[in-house]
Sequence to fold (128 residues):
Amino acid sequence: MRSLWDRLPPLLRAFLVVGLIAFVFVVLGQYQTLIALSLLLRIVFFLAITFFLYLLWRDRLRGDIETWSTRAKAVFYGAVALIVADLAAFFWPGRTTVGPDALAFLLVLALAGFSMWRVWRDEHSYGV
Fold:
C-alpha cells in the first residue's frame, strides 16, 4: 500500500516542503535570513530572464534582425533595452510592487512589447 506522501500530487508536496522550510525559519526567528534570501531570489530571477532572452536572440533572431532597416533595428533594440531597464527597476530591492509603480511597470512593458511586435510584423510583411 502506498503511503500518504506518495499519493499527494507533486505540486502539493512541493508546497508542503517550502511551507515546512518557511515554518522552521519563522520558529527559529530567522526573519533576516528570509529577507536576504528573498532579495537574492529576486536578483537571480531577473538575471535568469535576461540570460534566457539573450540566448533566444543569439540563436534565433540575430541573423533575421541583421537584414532589417537601420530604423527598425534601432526601434527593436531600443524597446529591448527599455524592457530590461523596466524589469531592473521593478525588481530592484526595496521597491514597492503595488499601486502606481506596478501600473507604470505594466504600461512600459506593454508599450515596448507592442513596438517590438509592430516592427517585427512590418519587417515580415512581404509587400502584402
Q: What stands out?
A: Residues 9-122 form one domain. Helices lie at 4-7, 10-27, 31-65, 70-90, 100-123. The CA atoms of residues 43 and 80 lie 19 Å apart. The radius of gyration is 21 Å.
